[in-house]
Design a protein that fits this description.
InterPro entries: Aldolase_TIM, Coproporphyrinogen-III_oxidase, Elp3/MiaA/NifB-like_rSAM, HemN_C, rSAM, rSAM_sf. The chain is of the alpha/beta class. The chain has helices at residues 4-11, 20-32, 57-62, 95-116, 136-149, 170-178, 193-198, 205-218, 236-247, 269-273, 279-292, 348-360, 375-387, 395-402, 406-409, 414-418, 433-436, 439-446, 449-454; strands spanning 49-56, 69-75, 77-78, 90-91, 121-128, 158-163, 183-189, 222-229, 253-258, 295-297, 302-305, 324-327, 332-334, 338-341, 366-372, 393-394, 422-425, 428-431. A nine-stranded mixed β-sheet has the order 10-11-9-8-7-6-5-2-12, covered by helices on one side. Strands 1-15-14-13 form a four-stranded antiparallel β-sheet. Strands 16-18-17 form a three-stranded antiparallel β-sheet. Strand 5, helix 5 and strand 6 form a beta-alpha-beta unit. The chain binds iron/sulfur cluster.
């Protein structure tokens, strides 16, 4: 929501400084509810609409300014749906369904390759869903499609694959190793069986330990582990126990996620409201532990060892994630001015029917569902992508890109500086350590009113 105090600032072209009392009020508003919306993409996919008329992909991609592209493949199948998940995925283990899906993805790749072959790929990621749910032959096929059809050069691109513990086998990890995968990311969420059960993710910790031992044998340059805090039945101590278990495997990277619930996820907001909200305590305790163990904080969720990386010399790629070529149903594609995807759904019925349409499709050469980014949305995206990461926003880069001043365009950003949630050093705007902990409410405050109207709303306590 836009605060009246923001308006006051805006009407004065950023020159008005609020009184100490007004600033306190504004800061209290930001910090009162730290978990408002997770802006893993901006604009969020729930703001996408029909594009009429559909946009020919040839025209969209031929002028895309990114130096190198990001190739993404989406595998929208899982063994079961986790209770907190609102991703585009379907619980379906049937091998014949997976094969038909990869057939469609290959068909799509053959058509898209002609639009995108003029630029190299600096990154390749296979996500989902659970890509390692696929049988070995289908998993191997994804790399063949990437290299032989899309033109991926695995020696200059970082390659990342998402995995889940129960799907990992020697044969599948051998395929990943032979395909020059640099990073394996595994969702664990919790090492406590009762906490996993509470989020409808029946997971025996022994299965997780088995997968971690197996991954250790293959020694991928980057192992990332995902954990969630704020689970029903979790305490700060049990959260730190899970984190400590993960750290004992010395992963190069750890993502820690606050639990979000929405009306259409299986775990409902009420399930969380029955217990006190411990998420901020968990975050602060985890941050302290991770930093004491030598991890650097890159965002509210991402911590990594500074030395973590691959031996490859990777092509340059903007952290703004433009030039993202998303293959598969549920994948998003980003050009600088248009974001598009297949339709979005979460319920079983909706997901099933969207995947069925995708598999039956013969032509994939137009974008018919997405969002055209106005100049203002491009600016807001540019700012958000930068300030929610520790690298921050190089203020001169804003002028270079948009030809105008950051402070005149968005004077309300100065509120961050005045409340010490943000700082400006050597021309770079970053969030302070305190501000980083409120990334989700700062992001939510900064998105435009128009996008906010269209977005799925997260439920506040
Ligand atoms: S959280 Fe991951 S494993 Fe669970 S349903 Fe969602 S995509 Fe599948």
């Amino acid at each position: 929501m836009t605060l009246p105090l923001d308006d006051l600032l805006l009407h004065n072209d950023g020159k008005h400084f609020l009184s100490a009392e007004e600033l306190l009020l504004w800061k209290e508003h930001i910090t009162a509810y730290p978990y408002r919306s997770y802006l893993y993409s901006y604009p969020h996919k729930t703001a996408y609409r029909d594009l009429q008329p559909p946009l020919p992909l040839k025209e969209l991609w031929e002028d895309e300014p990114a130096e190198a592209f990001f190739l993404y493949m989406h595998i929208p199948f899982c063994g079961a749906r986790c209770g907190f998940c609102n991703l585009f995925t379907l619980p379906d283990k049937r091998a014949d369904v997976h094969t038909r899906y990869v057939d469609a993805l290959e068909r799509q790749a053959k058509q898209w390759a002609t639009f995108t072959k003029h630029k190299p790929y600096a990154r390749f990621a296979i996500g989902g869903g659970t890509p390692t749910l696929l049988a070995e032959d289908q998993l191997r096929r994804l790399f063949t499609i990437a290299v032989d059809i899309m033109g991926l050069d695995t020696t200059v691109a970082s390659i990342s694959v998402e995995a889940s513990p129960e799907t990992l086998t020697d044969a599948k990890l051998t395929i990943l190793k032979e395909s020059s995968v640099d990073r394996v990311s595994m969702g664990i969420q919790s090492f406590v069986a009762a906490e996993s059960a509470a989020i409808y993710r029946p997971q025996n910790p022994d299965e997780v330990y088995r997968a971690l031992e197996l991954l250790g044998k293959y020694d991928f340059p980057i192992l990332n582990l995902d954990l969630i805090y704020g689970l029903p039945g979790q305490s700060v101590d049990s959260w730190l126990y899970s984190l400590d278990q993960a750290l004992s495997y010395e992963p190069e990277e750890i993502f820690i996620y606050p639990l979000y619930t929405r009306e259409h996820t299986i775990v409902k907001p009420g399930d969380m409201q029955r217990q006190g909200d411990i998420r901020l305590h968990c975050y602060n305790a985890a941050r302290e532990l991770l930093i004491s163990r030598g991890y650097r904080q890159y965002s509210m969720r991402r911590f990594a060892k500074e030395a973590a990386g691959t031996n490859k010399t990777i092509l340059d790629y903007s952290c703004q994630e433009e030039g993202m070529v998303g293959l598969g149903c549920g994948a998003r594609s980003y050009t600088r001015s248009v974001h598009y995807a297949s339709r979005y759904g979460v319920s079983r019925k909706a997901t099933e029917s969207i995947i069925a349409d995708y598999v039956a499709t013969e032509r994939y050469d137009t974008a018919d569902y997405g969002i055209m980014l106005s100049l203002e949305e491009q600016q807001r995206r540019f700012i958000l992508k930068a300030i929610l990461h520790s690298e921050g926003l190089l203020i001169s880069s804003y002028r270079e890109r948009f030809g105008s001043s950051l402070w005149s365009d968005y004077p309300k950003l100065s509120l961050l500086l005045q409340t010490e949630l943000g700082q400006e050093d050597d021309g770079v705007l970053t969030l302070t350590p305190e501000g980083m902990g409120y990334s989700d409410s700062i992001g939510d405050w900064f998105i435009s009113g128009e996008i906010r109207e269209q977005m799925e709303r997260f439920v506040l306590p």
